[in-house]
Amino acid sequence: MNVLVVNCGSSSLKYQLIDMKGEVVLAKGLVERIGIEGSILTQKVEGREKYIIKQPMANHKEAIKLVLGALVDSTNGVIKDMSEISAVGHRVVHGGEKYSNSVLIDDEVMKALDECSKLAPLHNPPNITGINACKELMPTTPMVAVFDTAFHQTIPEYAYIYPLPYELYTEHGIRKYGFHGTSHRYVASKVAELMNDDLKNLKVITCHLGNGASIAAIKDGKSIETSMGFTPLEGIAMGTRSGSIDPAIVTFLMKELNYSIDEVNDVINKKSGVYGISGVSSDFRDIEDAAWKEDNKRAELALDVFHYKVKKFIGSYAAVMNGVDCVVFTAGLGENSPETREAICEGLDYLGIKLDKEKNKVRGKAVEISVEGSKVKVFVIPTDEELMIARDVKELVK
Ligand code: ADP
């Protein structure tokens, strides 16, 4: 069974074709600049040169048509024809309160996704566009929606309700939803496998540290708390996002400094985080270079702030779960920066977290990095949201 996994952004589209027998990635690719000048598709197949198509793509339907063409291409493709794609899995950012699991897409689901768009105006509309485009081109192929929010639907009410007038929740859906759920779910299931235990027996803290970053507390196999909230802005400081700040800063900026709504949005989403503090970059590699090679004090401060925020969440999630058995680092930074992991884990020995500095010198591999006998085990686990999506599709379609 081959599953096509599609992740549509506003002007980009990532895809993977996965053969579920052995969970092998047959091809993966990226389409960029959809609807703008310079549209380009890049497809990678293990052991082959990259296949690049540069041609105008006015919209997502044209982009997906090209993706399908690239997959069945007689020299650069990996399948003979489209009938070899058994099903399609779509990453959808927001499923609101309606979806706590992945779901086969029908008209009712499409309506619900549309309703969720007001909660994720930047993300859900391109996801919906992608689904519609695939439905037009593959009308008989089953499609599944896999939501970033779904895994966190098990968070208890006292943890997801904001201390605001209750009607804002009942009438406008203002509550914590949480994001990166597919990634947290994937690494949690993987850590249980590595610990040779059932996830239901473990208290796990998963740290998804990439450009966007979030942390989750997983107990009895369920997410019971996560750092992102109503939107993916809450929580720890990120590449360019502020994370949690005193909400009065927003009104101060508007009242005292005359910021418009758009300007405030721009500042807290695109000009803050480690980029805002360092003034260097949103990319942690650049900030680490500036801090350690150029002795840039603001870059150092940005890293200190980031590590401190993550550490605080780990401590509070240990409290929330009444203990912790393992901590997992994943995503771009979590998988690739030993220095970040060391800085975060430093001083957490009272919790029983003891990192092995030698084992920690690892990038992008699923391994334990805590010392032999550490009460809390620490792991690096590369995330694989596409595989998780494909597994859900297989489960639902069979
Ligand atoms: P997203 O999917 O949210 O865009 P990723 O999970 O791809 O983010 O992570 C991107 C981040 O990971 C970037 O800030 C990048 O600097 C960081 N990163 C990737 N590789 C390394 C590395 N070797 N050392 C430090 N940071 C890294």
UniProtKB/TrEMBL annotation:
Cofactor: Mg(2+); Mn(2+)
UniProt-listed SUPFAM superfamilies: Actin-like ATPase domain
Keywords annotated in UniProt: ATP-binding, Cytoplasm, Kinase, Magnesium, Metal-binding, Nucleotide-binding, Transferase
Annotated compartments: Cytoplasm
Residues annotated for ATP binding in this entry: 14, 208-212, 283-285, 332-336
Domain of life: Bacteria
Binding site for Mg(2+): 7, 385
InterPro entries in UniProt: Ac/propionate_kinase, Aliphatic_acid_kin_short-chain, Aliphatic_acid_kinase_CS, ATPase_NBD
Top EC class, one word: transferase
Active site, renumbered: 148 (proton donor/acceptor)
Documented EC number(s): 2.7.2.1
Site (Transition state stabilizer): 180, 241
Binding positions for substrate per the UniProt entry: 91
Pathway(s) served: Metabolic intermediate biosynthesis; acetyl-CoA biosynthesis; acetyl-CoA from acetate: step 1/2
GO molecular function annotation: kinase activity
Cofactor remark from the record: Mg(2+). Can also accept Mn(2+).
Reactions it catalyzes: acetate + ATP = acetyl phosphate + ADP
Pfam families cross-referenced by the UniProt entry: Acetate_kinase (PF00871)
Function noted in UniProt: Catalyzes the formation of acetyl phosphate from acetate and ATP. Can also catalyze the reverse reaction.
Protein family according to the UniProt entry: Belongs to the acetokinase family.
Quaternary structure and partners: Homodimer.
Stated name of the protein: Acetate kinase
Source organism per UniProt: Clostridium rhizosphaerae
Organism taxonomic ancestry: Bacteria, Bacillati, Bacillota, Clostridia, Eubacteriales
